[in-house]
Amino acid sequence: MEFPKKADRLKRLTQNIIFWMARGLSYGIVVILLLILFFIVRQGIEVISWEFLTTSPREGMTKGGIFPAIVGTFYLVMGSMLFAVPIGVMAGIYVHEYAKAGPVKRLIRIMTDNLAGVPSIIFGLFGMALFVNQLNFGTSILAGSLTLGLMALPIVIRTTEEALIAVADHYRHASLALGATRWYTIHKVVLPIAMPNILTGLILAVGRVSGETAPILFTVAAYFLPRLPSGILDQCMALPYHLYVISTSGTQIEAARPMAYGTALVLIVIVMIVNLSAAGLRHYLSKKVKMN
Amino acid sequence: MSKIATQNIHLYYRDFHALKGITMAIESHSVTALIGPSGCGKSTYLRLFNRMNDLIEGVRIEGEVLIDGIDIYKIKKQEIDPLRRNVGMVFQKPNPFPKSIFENVAYGLRVNGITNRQFIEEKVEQSLQQAALWNEVKDKLKKSAFDLSGGQQQRLCIARALAIEPSIILMDEPASALDPISTGKIEDLIFELKNDYTIIIVTHNMQQAGRVSDNTAFFYMGDLIEFGTTKKIFTSPAKQETENYISGRFG
């Protein structure tokens, strides 16, 4: 049978156009990311020095460094993860491994998704109302960590759930058929297989949390602190908030501009290191837990 | 007393009536083949005996399933895990854990809280020998189970099931994903295991049913059409449907 050649040529042309558009757009994303990076690096690189990374701000934040903000961000990330990881992973396990299909499971799903969509400033307000005022933690690392943790919670739950979904059922069945309990099966078989994906999710949550400004605005962030915090009920500085402050509300905004770009550079480098380490860890773990 | 018996078992997946009143008795130390076209209920029937159907939401069961005279659907929830230790299962697709060969076989022992290293080592070797795999893997027990071929993986899964000393082994088309040589090894193995275990095997392969089983049950559309010695079913079946199926006229 003869097929019309013209139709074939047209089909191939259409395919090529779509393909090149898709290719162009995906390269476009890379270009945009590189442009942002280039811009930040060019503006910020000149203030980066050992002093900038290890000392406190001086002279109305136009001089000195951002060490307290780096330390503060580190504390907040650790604190929020300490809170969000156990609860989020447990919730993910419950939703996927234990909860029966039905209204309760659907409700948890919908609520988790909605929680992920709540604007971060609302988390900030809620954190202030609950942790700072109601529970009397004051503006403190504790209150800020809990607020950030709440924000990270849906990400952790969702990635845990996705990671568990990706574990083929036949592993569970094999274990249960040997007389293992559900928890033994989850703990010894399912979680080790899901771990690379869960960890990737957690590290992405870290990346997200470390860059947030709004949730810490009213709950922990200090405009300027000459000292490092000495406990979890102290305030602290944080990179994103510091960037916000010196770009908008200092007395000498223009003079502080290089400091702002330097801060931005440090923040973006930290987030990228975290994300790249997620990729590396995932690669390492998925090699360790060999799948076929 | 029969080793296994079902009394008028009905099973529903929500509205679907998958098993329609199956009554059957299986003797100890025998191999029983369950045959029939896809969707006839034979795998569902097999999964009654270790309560794997419980894992599917919307399943409802009526009737009695007796193992050693005990109705396994009347036992307490916490007795289901011990039941599954007594009723081992080999699945259609080899499904070793992403662990070492050794740990795969040791898994069931660890599940049961056994920590004695020497005992575990002996049991692993013994189980691998029973599964006719020991000679092929004895030098690479620490290697991943995924380094084995499909046929070896399936024998590993059999060893894994044997390690916890069940009295019954359920096999759900254990050789359907394997090449003819591996299939032959599995069949030889089933023949050996019959001395110590009661085996029920689901198969789509008529020759296989003929080769390995003592008794054969023919299922069709959720009904047990005919159950008898394999010899009788294959040479002079009582029902026309059985003869049609065995002679390859449908299914």
Low-confidence stretches of chain B: none
Counted by DSSP, the helix tally of chain B is 10
Greatest interface by residues involved: A-B, 22 and 28 residues
Write down the overall mean pLDDT of chain A: 88
CATH architecture of chain A: Orthogonal Bundle
Question: What fraction, in percent, of the residue positions of chain A are helical?
Answer: over 70%
Q: What's the CATH topology label of chain B?
A: Rossmann fold
Look up the CATH topology of chain A. Answer: MetI-like fold
How are the strands of the biggest sheet of chain A laid out side by side?
Answer: 1-2
Tally the helices of chain A: 11
Task: Explain the layout of strands and helices.
The complex is a heterodimer of chains A (292) and B (251).
Chain A: H1 5-44, H2 50-54, E1 57-58, E2 63-64, H3 67-98, H4 103-117, H5 120-134, H6 141-165, H7 169-177, H8 182-210, H9 214-217, H10 239-248, H11 253-288
Antiparallel strand pairs in A: 1-2
Helix pairs in contact in A: 1-11, 3-6, 3-8, 3-10, 4-6, 5-6, 6-8, 7-8, 8-11, 10-11
Chain B: E1 4-13, E2 16-26, E3 31-35, H1 42-46, E4 59-67, E5 70-71, H2 80-86, E6 87-90, H3 101-111, H4 117-130, H5 134-137, H6 150-162, E7 168-172, H7 180-193, E8 198-202, H8 206-212, E9 215-220, E10 223-229, H9 230-235, H10 240-246
In short:
Chain A has 292 residues and is mainly α. Chain A is built from eleven helices and two strands; from the N terminus they run H-H-E-E-H-H-H-H-H-H-H-H-H.
Explain what this protein looks like in three dimensions:
The complex is a heterodimer of chains A (292) and B (251). Chain A has 292 residues and is mainly alpha-helical. Chain A has one domain (66-288): MetI-like fold, CATH 1.10.3720. Chain A has eleven helices and two strands; from the N terminus they run ααββααααααααα. Chain A has helices at 5-44, 50-54, 67-98, 103-117, 120-134, 141-165, 169-177, 182-210, 214-217, 239-248, 253-288; strands spanning 57-58, 63-64. A two-stranded antiparallel sheet of chain A has the order 1-2. In chain A, helix 4 packs across helix 6 (141-165). The longest helix of chain A has 40 residues, at 5-44. The two termini of chain A are 43 Å apart. The model of chain A has no long low-confidence stretch (mean pLDDT 88). Chain B is α/β, with parallel strands linked by helices and 251 residues long. Chain B has a single domain (4-246), classed as P-loop containing nucleotide triphosphate hydrolases (Rossmann fold), CATH 3.40.50. Chain B is built from ten helices and ten strands. Chain B has helices at 42-46, 80-86, 101-111, 117-130, 134-137, 150-162, 180-193, 206-212, 230-235, 240-246, and strands at residues 4-13, 16-26, 31-35, 59-67, 70-71, 87-90, 168-172, 198-202, 215-220, 223-229. In chain B, the strands form two sheets. Chain B has a six-stranded mixed sheet. In chain B, strands 2-1-4-5 form a four-stranded antiparallel sheet, with no helix packed on it. In chain B, helix 3 runs parallel beside helix 6 (150-162) and helix 4 crosses helix 6. The interface between A and B is medium-sized, with 22 and 28 residues.
